[in-house]
Amino acid sequence: MRSSKQQDRLVFVPLGGSGEIGMNLNLYGFGPEGREQWIIVDLGVSFGDLTTPGVEVIMPDPQFIAERAKDLLGIILTHAHEDHMGALAAFWPDLRAPVYATPFTMYLVRDRLSEAGLLDEVELHEVPLGGHISLGPFEMDMVTLTHSIPEPNALLIRTPAGLILHTGDWKIDPDPLIGQATDSKTLMAAGDEGILAMVCDSTNVFTEGEAGSESGVRDELIKLVGEQKGRVAVAAFASNVARLQTAVEAAEHNDRTVCLVGRSMHRMMGAARHVGLFTNAKPFIDEEEAAALPKNEVLYLCTGSQGEPRAALSRIASGSHRFVKLGNGDSVLFSSRVIPGNEKSIFALQNALASAGVNVIGEKERHIHVSGHPCRDELRQMYAWARPKIAIPVHGERRHLIEHAKLAQELQVPHGFAPRNGDMIMLSEAGAELVDEVPAGRIYRDGSVLTPADSGALRERKKMAFGGVISLALAVDGAGRIHSGPEANLFGMAEPKEGFEKTIDALCDAAQKAVENLPKRSRGDEIATENAVRQAVRRLAPRIWGKRPHVDVIVLPL
Ligand SMILES: [Zn+2]
Ligand SMILES: [Zn+2]
Fold first, then answer.
1. Distance from the CA of 395 to the center of ligand 2, in angstroms?
2. Residue ranges near ligand 2 (ion) with Cβ within 5 Å
3. Direct distance between the N- and C-terminal alpha carbons of the chain, in angstroms, rounded to an integer
4. What is the pLDDT of residues 18-49, one digit of tens each?
5. Whole-number pLDDT of residue 179
6. Collapsing DSSP states into helix, strand and coil, what is residue 294?
7. CA 161 to centroid of ligand 2, rounded, Å
8. 494 C-alpha to center of ligand 2: Å?
9. pLDDT digits over 280-321, tens only?
10. For residue 42, how far is its CA from the centre of ligand 1 (angstroms)?
């Protein structure tokens, strides 16, 4: 007998972050099929690279949940990294749900929303560390973990269908310098209660051992700064507030005064002070004051460790920074990791510094960086605490997720599922089952316009960037006679052996012949003329340049 009332079910749907490290967007739904109530956990961005010219920010496509916005109960942000909260302001108008976060994250959320002119519209709920959130069928507790930013939270999500541990980003640091150590007691208690599924960070699944403690970095950085005679600049992620604290301590130990360089350093320091950090630090000095100090009395704390062209360190390296000048005998300490994809710009930056006589020291030379994500021993520890029935690896590329699922299997977790963005996974005592695939994709922020990644604009842009552009214009009357032109313009095309003038003549000749050779019935037809000219130029161009430029033809009818 089928019951007339449809059964409630619990589903997990990642729309971003399962297939890439970045742009996290996770949904949990509970209710009868098709009539679920939803929560969003994290709403982040990713960054463009050389393969996405002109696009700096990439976001997950929120269409699926935007269409269900009336059933969206809330948006919970686990922490303040861009890959977890960077898309909130862009998509909130389509979602219009209340936002929940702990104080440090909320400070930065307010900053962003006010930049976007949304601050007065959004219902914000600041949750204390370890606090509770109650939304429809979801009863949630924040659990404090350790990571590379203050206030990283896991979420314990209680539903009528079972308990979920959504870890967010984490590592196990027994001595994180700022904030609490990992709340293992709560995790263990949840394990005793019985965790149905753990949705967990996969970033460092290929790294054996442990990520290492911030306190180890502090000891080494104090020593390393003590060895320097000239100016010292420490390059770090501004959001890694514990690292800023480490650098401040290294400065104070060595009688140097700290000078912050870069907008995001000041922004993050504001957020840190808001939650009571850095209250005992000696006052910082500004760039102008720092320039006047003896070389061995200053420590710059800089943004731009990834070689971002507009960040402070790139401007310092190129000598174009107004106040901060580094040269012979000065040092830059890269207290950060090389994010895959950024190698070229980082090495270019380091070479520029080296040719100015600056010593460049990175994490390979000295122990001045630790990761914020769990390595294999930490993952093992988390599984031992949580003992979930189902392992759902997220926050990784495809190979990370598959490897993490394998590790969970080795650790005797009965069920596992390595998801893809858009998978709708039903979670129950029977395990994890793929029940649907929903639309998931990427949105590019192209200047100020949001556009789907597959819209074709970028494909065309790349084609023009690689091949250059030939543009031809001519005016033709109704009988197919050319009245003016053809006129050719080249954009981004190298000068061939024959020279530009002869080449342009050849292109125009080819265009003219194409018009003259049109069959009678097509003469004077705008479209047919355009096509014929384009074809002729496309045939000729590879013989001149050995490549295929983009060809643009305009026929003006008279
Ligand atoms: Zn992350
Ligand atoms: Zn993070």
1. 10
2. 81, 169
3. 76
4. 999 999 999 999 999 999 999 999 999 998 88
5. 86
6. coil
7. 28
8. 44
9. 888 899 999 999 999 999 999 999 999 988 899 999 999 999
10. 9
Q: 22 alpha carbon to ligand 1 midpoint, in Å?
A: 6
Concatenating the DSSP letter of every residue in 139-176 gives EEEEEE-B-SSS--EEEEEEETTEEEEE--S-B--S--
Listed in order, the ranges of the chain carrying CATH 3.40.50.10710 are 215-361
Look at residue 5 in the predicted model and tell me its pLDDT.
63
The pLDDT of 115-140, averaged and rounded, is 97
- What burial class does residue 519 get, using C-beta atoms within 10 Å of its C-beta: 0-12 exposed, 13-18 middle, 19+ buried? exposed
Ligand number, closest to the Cα atom of 42: 1
Ligand 2 mean position, distance from CA 380 (Å): 20
- Reading the block at residue 27, the tokens are 């949904």
Q: Is 141 exposed, middle or buried (0-12, 13-18, 19+ CB in 10 A)?
A: middle
Written out in words, the top-level CATH class of the domain with range 8-209+371-454 is alpha beta
Report CA Rg, the chain. Answer: 29
What residues does CATH 3.10.20.580 cover in the chain?
A: 468-557
Closest CA to 85 of 109, 117, 119, 58: 109
Ligand 2 centroid from CA 287, angstroms: 30
CATH of domain 468-557: 3.10.20.580
Å from CA of 22 to ligand 2 middle: 9
Distance between Cα 482 and ligand 2 center (Å): 63
Q: Three-state SS for 26?
A: strand
Q: What is the pLDDT of residue 528?
A: 87
Say if residue 122's pLDDT is above 80: yes
Instruction: Give the closest ligand to the alpha carbon of residue 372.
Output: 2
Mean pLDDT for the stretch of residues 494-508: 93
**Ligand nearest to the backbone CA of 170:** 2
Which CATH superfamily groups domain 215-361? Metallo-hydrolase/oxidoreductase (3.40.50.10710)
CA of 466 to the centre of ligand 1 (A): 33
Q: Which of 521, 515, 520, 519 is nearest to 535 (CA)?
A: 515
Sheet strands (E) in 4-70: 8-16, 18-19, 25-32, 37-43, 46-47, 55-60
Tracing tokens 């504001």 back to the chain, one arrives at 270
Residues 6+ apart with CB under 8 A from 196: 10, 161, 162, 163, 164, 388, 389, 390, 427, 428, 429
Calculated CA dihedral for residues 413, 415, 419, 422, nearest 10 degrees: -140
Give distance in angstroms: CA of 153 to centre of ligand 2: 10
Taking only the tens place, the pLDDT of each residue in 202-252 is 999 999 999 999 999 999 999 999 999 999 999 999 999 999 999 999 999
**Ligand 2 centroid to residue 477 C-alpha, Å:** 64
**Other beta carbons less than 10 A from residue 329's beta carbon:** 14
2-6: Cβ within 8 A, 24+ apart? 5/32, 6/32, 6/33, 6/35
